[in-house]
Every structure is written in C-alpha cells, then in structure tokens.
Fold these 2 entries.
Entry 1:
Amino acid sequence: MKPRWMLVWALYPFAAGAMALNVYFVSLLLSWIGWAVLSPLNAGALGLVLGLPAAWAYARHLTRLMAEADGEVAS
C-alpha cells in the first residue's frame, strides 16, 4: 500500500530533524575510532536528504495502520 503524499510531506520536517540528530550523534560516536565529527550544518544537510525516505517509510506504516483500523485489507 502506497502512503498518501500529503502525509509524507507533513511528517518530513520531523523526520529530517530526527535524521539530522541521528547523523550528528553517529559522527560523535565514530570520533572515538578516529573519524572526523560532522559540523551541525553538515549533519543538517544530511538530515534533509535522509529525512524523505524516513518520512516515506513512516507514512507507509501509518497508512497500513489506518487501513487496518478501517477494516480494509492491507497488502
């Protein structure tokens, strides 16, 4: 079942912010083994890119839950 795109775009700002934080914290963890720490600006840019697939996946999950609540068969 495909998600509704209005739902994807409504979730996108939250997903992009969450992905930016995750990318930044992963870069902090990787600094323990010698990798460089990303700047918050670079982490934010990566969050903008990675936020769309994350929002799409969560919107798909929510669409399945809505279909299940309506009694429709979700594939």
Note: The longest helix spans residues 40-69.
Entry 2:
Amino acid sequence: MRLWSLHPRYLDAKGLVALWREALLAKAVLEGKTRGYTRHPQLERFKADSDPAALVSRYLAAVLAEADARGYAFDRSKCAPSCGHAALEVSSGQIAYEREHLLAKLRVRDPSRVATLEAAATPEPHPLFRVVEGPVADWERRRP
C-alpha cells in the first residue's frame, strides 16, 4: 500500500488507479470492514485522527479530483463527502523520499512524466498535507 504524500498530478495513469484502489482499501481497513492491512505503517498518520475514515475520504476526494481532471471515470459513490479536517503534517524529508521513489517508478513505467516531477525541486504535496521541515517519516519502509 502506498498512500502518496505527493500531489496526485505527478502520478502516471497506473499510479493514479493504484492510489485510488489503495486509498479505498485504507478506508475499508479504518472502517473495520476488512481484517487485512490493519497494522500497515502507511495508516499510522491517519489513525492518529479522531475520525480516520473521514480523513481518508478527504484524501480520496483529491485523488478523485485529479481523475476527473484527466477524464477518468472513477466511481464517485466510493468516496463519501468529507469535511472539517485540518491538514496533516508531512515532513520535507518524506516528500523528498517519495519524489525519488516515484521518479524511479516513472522512469520505468512512463518516462514522459519524469520531466514534470524533475522540474519540481520541491513538489507540491497532496492537498491533505502541509509540509514541515523534518526527516523521512518513521513509518516509511525504505528501499535499499
């Protein structure tokens, strides 16, 4: 499961569809509708909220907006309306790590999207997040 802290605009088609599915899975986990993935480290930052499922709905809303902008037909009924949550913090180190991680994926899957992300020395975060100075998140499973 990868719930990107980067804005969904940087993802290729495969990445955006995967993000949609993985965020829906995260929502199901946080709603207690599945037994798998309950301890997945990507969920830590959502679990700290008083209403983690609603927070993931807000996350999904931004993914849906990007899908709409691209003309994709994601199922809107899967994304409940969300409101009232403050932005979560994400560290600058986490954003930098995810930028490099995504660049590696794009170089293989969709080289035409690499230039856009490379041009963004400081990429925009997902609308749910506010960037603060700091290292890569403790919950991140780093690749060697």
Note: The radius of gyration is 15 Å.
